[in-house]
Write the structure tokens for this entry.
Amino acid sequence: MPNTASSDSVMFSLIVPLLNEQDSLQELYDQIRSVMERMGHSYEILFIDDGSTDASAEIIERLNSRDDRVKLIQFLHNYGKSAALAAGFMACRGRFVVTMDADLQDDPEEIPSLYEKIQSGYDLVSGWKKIRHDPFIKRITSKVYNFFTSLFSGIRLHDFNCGLKMYRREVAKTIHVYGDLHRYLPVIAHRNGFRVAEIPVRHRPRRHGVSKFGMTRFTRGAFDLLTITFLTRYRMRPLHLFGLLGLSAFGAGSVILVVLAYQRLVQHVYLSNRPLLFLGVLLIIVGIQFFSIGLLGEMITSQRTESDAFLIKKCLGCQSSLPQQLPASFSIT
């Protein structure tokens, strides 16, 4: 089999995060190879093993021994999909970066359609699972999640969390993803000034294994929506948010106290039994606290450094690129 990954110029990097997907990996590799060879461009496949406890890593190692376009980054233990994507973005070399899940629900046959769309002038093209093969409750909660994400983010997409996406290299290399913010990559890219589009893609029924996301993902998704709204709008200017809240509270408290002072000094109304007095004092204190939080946020923003919290247990095929792109504090064995 020809080995093209050694070329200095790779057209496509396919990033596949996975956790305990041993039954899907060989078939997924065969499908990806078939599609990419028809397209006729150089490519690499980066499997990011997010702490699997089955034979996933061994299967990828066997694929690597036959085809050096297959890469493996194995985490020390499970860090989550965002960490897996972050590692893939750092290590990839392609001009275009494709992300997809390893459970065979994302169809590699959609890659040419994503490429055609991104060639029309976009920087990130996200898939839209228009017809979903998921349980009813998951489909409903996904609609609710996508509605509120569109409302708060200002970008209109039907499916923010679709695993099948294509990025230009510039997007993948500049986007910072951590925690559970992989759900909001189109929002982050849009806020960074990149052009985002969406196309319908085929969604296939799950054939092997079970979903790795439980009910807690709904509450975590809601909290992450608040996080991404704050980070994309006020990350570099926290005082604009907390200062506005502080000014509003301080102003309301000041108006209340001025009215009460007028009533006491001019109208001779006693204030000892006026709960409004305590509300006015409370609002002023809260306003000052919001100002303080905003100023502390500005100080932290000016001093902070980026860090990623994951350790790499094993790398195959990435040694030439990882040391230059991963922080020196990472453990690579």
Q: What stands out?
A: Strands lie at 10-18, 43-49, 70-75, 94-99, 124-129, 165-168, 196-201, 312-316.
